[in-house]
Structures are given as structure tokens and as C-alpha cells.
Amino acid sequence: MSIPTTMKFIVFTKVKENLQGRILRFQTKRWTVPWTGKTIAQVMILWIATFWFVGSWIVPFLAHAAGFSKETLTHRGQALYSLLTDITEGLAGIAILHQCLGRFRPLPPGWFEFNLKGRWILDVVLGCLLFPLVNLLSHINISLVPMSPGPVVGVSSVEQSIVARDPVAMALYAVVVIVCAPIWEEIVFRGFLLPSLTRYMPLPLSILASAAAFALAHFNAQRVMPLIFLGVVMGGVFARSRNLLASMVLHSLWNGFVFLDLMK
């Protein structure tokens, strides 16, 4: 017995509306933001400055005071140096965030949520389906913004470890890329910046603005397009799930994909 065409149309319409509702549901949700643009700017400027100061000055100075430099280390030593630097930068950034928001505690519900429960895994899977598009945008961006003329940049310490096939060094770099970076960046760009911007603009624009800030913070013109799109995807996943774990996992999966591709 065949299903009447009218019934098929009704079922298709309901499925379509349900899917559209699930995809667009996050647009109606917003956060209660107790601080103003002054605090938003303060956190972001201090966070970027702290990352630069710690990574470019404090850690190298301490290393020099201890009698060694990164350039003279083995592959494993350089990887450990990078991991310790990233952890120090991240903890310093979290300290900045904690200090700047201290006077607003206790924070309203919904801030910096980290939950294993819920349907966030489905949101992450849907986000992963867009990875090929991120990769395509990366190739397009590189073709539009060629390398600037100047001295040839040497092979990075990560690439040197991959060429040398040092498993310990590669494992340490993997921790930096797949674990540390997603945690620090998601806490700041999705956990703090995106919800904060909803005080002044609709949620979709907040997602886009935070994604643009995320891309610009990498200081790489050849990666702006894919990073903005990736930031929008991660922002959408976070806005739907209200769960930092979701965007962190998605971020980690993308970084893992890039790291594995680099190892080929």
C-alpha cells in the first residue's frame, strides 16, 4: 500500500520545519551580560598582550636565565619548551579573565558552562561535516594572499620533528595543538567574547564578530577566511549547545585534522 502524495508532503514539511527549527533555534537565545564594552575591550586587549608578553619575553628570559635557549634544544626539548610556553600563556590569560570579571561574581546562569550531558555531540558532528568547506576556503585564501616577498622562513620546529619522525616530540606538539589551544581559545572567544557581544548586537552578529576576532588574533593573512568560517561554525555549535565542551571538541578535531595533514 503506497503512502498518499499529500501525506508524504505533510511529513516532508514537518521534517523540514523541525530541521530548520533545530538549526535556527540558537538565534532566539541570549545571555545576561553584567559588564559593558569597557570590560570586553579590557579583557581582550590584556589577553592578547599577555600571550605576546609571556611567549616573547617572560619565557625566553627565564630560559636564558637558566642557561639555555630554544634553538639549542633537541627536537624533544623544543617540543617541551613549546608545551610549557603554551600552558604558561593559557594560565596567564585565564588569570586575566578571572581578575577582570571578579567584581561581577557570581556570574549569571549560562556563563562558561562545561557539561558532558546533552545533545552537544550531534552539534559537533554537524560541525565536522563543514570541515571540507573550511579546507576549501583555506586553499582559496592562500591563492588570494600569496606569501609576501622577503627572506625565506625556515622550517618550523614542528616540521623538523615530523621530518625527524620523533614520536615524543610529535606527541608533545599534538598536546599543544589538539588540547591546549582549543581550551584557551574557546574559553576566551566563545566562552567570553561571543556572549558578551550579545549585549550590543543580535546573536548571529555576535557569532560573526567573535569569529572575526578569533581569525585576526592569529595574525596570519593567509588563514583569515577559513578561520572566520571555522569561528562561525564553532560559535554556532556553542550557541546551540550553550556548552564550551562542544566548541572545544570541535576545535580540537579541526586542529587534529590539520596536524595529521601536516604529518603526511
TrEMBL record:
Domain of life: Eukaryota
Coiled coil: none
Pfam families the record matches: Rce1-like (PF02517)
Domain CAAX prenyl protease 2/Lysostaphin resistance protein A-like: start-end pairs: 170-256
A GO BP entry: CAAX-box protein maturation
GO molecular function terms attached to this record: endopeptidase activity
Segments crossing the lipid bilayer: 39-59, 120-142, 162-184, 205-238
Entries under InterPro entries matching the protein: Rce1/LyrA-like_dom
Signal peptide annotation: none
Keywords: Membrane, Transmembrane, Transmembrane helix
Protein name stated in the entry: CAAX prenyl protease 2/Lysostaphin resistance protein A-like domain-containing protein
Organism: Setaria viridis
